[in-house]
Amino acid sequence: MKPPRKLHIKSYGCQMNVYDAQRMVDTLAGEGFVETASVDDADLVILNTCHIREKASEKVYSELGRLRVMKDDAARQGREMKIAVAGCVAQAEGEEIIRRAPTVDVVVGPQSYHHLPQLLARAQAHGRALETEFPVEDKFEFLAPPKPAAIRARGISSFVTVQEGCDKFCTFCVVPYTRGAEVSRPVGKIIDDVMRLADNGVREITLIGQNVNAYHGEGPDGRVWPLGRLLQRLAEIPGIARLRYSTSHPRDVDDSLIEAHRDLPALMPFVHLPVQSGSDRVLAAMNRRHTARDYHEVIDRFRAARQDIAFSSDFIVGFPGETEEEFSATLALVMQIGYAGAYSFKYSPRPGTPAADMRETVSAAEMDERLVRLQDLIDSQQSAFNKAMIGKTVDVLFERAARNPGQIVGRTAWLQPAHVMASPDIIGQVLPVTIESLERYSLLGELALPVARPQPSPFSQMTTGA
Ligand code: 5AD
Ligand code: SF4
């Protein structure tokens, strides 16, 4: 039997890339590849790239420079190292990568990962291979499902893609160009995936997609199901304790989603709902198709449905022509909403997007200064949110042994890591924890109830091996 070949994937960017990396591992497992954490002895290195913000593609070329040296070293030792570039930079700049980086053997866009085995064979036969065919609507279904051992090794929380692509065309964003039009998977396929994950010990599912609440997959009844209905159905699958979804657009929050938050205890009260700016002029120039007022109204609908709900968001500072007054409107919105956390970015022009042609600019110094002010405000809200947990008893889903001996770590409903001293038997269980203190972003606490007889959890049985 041939020894397994080693595969190393380096992923940048969003959750979708993390998920895609896992699916590439699963697909290549069928070709005799096993994943390795070290790049040095890999037979195949895949850079899974991101194009969303500045310098992403420059990072790829400098990484390729380092890999070229490693590839040459390997060749001197009589070993072959193949290099592939995947992800959104591959999609956007495939031809240029082939031209600029002769060390690259395969360039593969996100719509074509199911062709990776054929592309590697083509590169072997003809030297190099490029595929950025686009879009391949049935790409989801060609990917190999993960094997039970792979599911268990990845732990009790898992991503499942439910849709890909985006039709919103925000003027700053490359996603509609690199990931293509919005495509939703049929409900039946998602149920099959979630059942397989649950059978192998997964207790928490995060449904992912670039615009996940635009979901409109075909249901088993032949009708189009919105995200809320899908969540209702998934909550019925035995073993699934928690459901989440990411990333949402404020305009696509429909009543089914609000009702799901009202009715499903398994649907976690933590929603990532990017707003980008608090200024209506900027929001219009971004083509967000909502105002600050619309956003507040959406937040109010969530809060009315579930009172312990918390929010996170994405912000862009320094969008072309953003004035100090417009930036202040963003700070005002953050103060009014009160976030549990948020990401903020300096605007960077993405080639091919409408905003890249806008002539007004904001100086680098102003952008830096606005970013600091916004991040300080968000940080203070985040620490207030975390501090407010002290003294409370909250449910924690335990995921794994922590670094400190004897400690087990899990997450609260709001994704805060929480540590307790306990037996590994609790891994895979949701248990109430009384929070005693906060260490940076981590909560420390004690199990609120004695754990008399652990609930059987397929995952904890398999990992502790007793
Ligand atoms: N410049 C800065 N930030 C951007 N984002 C998307 N495109 C850009 C850009 N051109 C941010 C948005 C989005 C997040 C994933 O990345 O805030 O919600
Ligand atoms: Fe990009 Fe999100 Fe806008 Fe779609 S909704 S274009 S993914 S920022």
Describe this structure in words.
The structure is a single chain. This protein has 466 residues and is α/β, with parallel strands linked by helices. It folds into 3 domains: 5-134, 3-Layer(aba) Sandwich (Rossmann fold); 138-387, pyruvate-formate lyase- activating enzyme, CATH 3.80.30; 393-447, OB fold (Dihydrolipoamide Acetyltransferase, E2P). Helices cover 36% and strands 22% of the residues. It has 15 helices and 21 strands. The protein has helices at 15-29, 56-76, 87-100, 116-126, 139-142, 148-153, 175-178, 187-199, 227-234, 255-263, 280-285, 292-305, 324-337, 364-387, 458-464; strands at residues 5-11, 33-35, 44-49, 82-86, 106-108, 129-131, 157-161, 163-164, 183-184, 204-208, 216-218, 224-226, 242-246, 270-272, 310-317, 341-346, 393-401, 407-411, 417-421, 430-439, 442-447. The strands form 6 sheets. Strands 2-1-3-4-5-6 form a 6-stranded parallel sheet, sandwiched between helices. A 5-stranded mixed barrel has the order 17-18-19-21-20. Helix 4 (116-126) links the parallel strand 5 and strand 6. Helix 9 packs parallel to helix 10, helix 10 (255-263) runs parallel beside helix 12 (292-305) and helix 13 runs parallel beside helix 14 (364-387). The longest helix is centred in the last third of the chain and has 24 residues, at 364-387. It starts with a strand and ends with a helix. It binds 5'-deoxyadenosine and iron/sulfur cluster (SF4). Residues 52-53, 172-173, 274, 276, 314, 316, 345, 347-348, 350 line the site of 5'-deoxyadenosine.
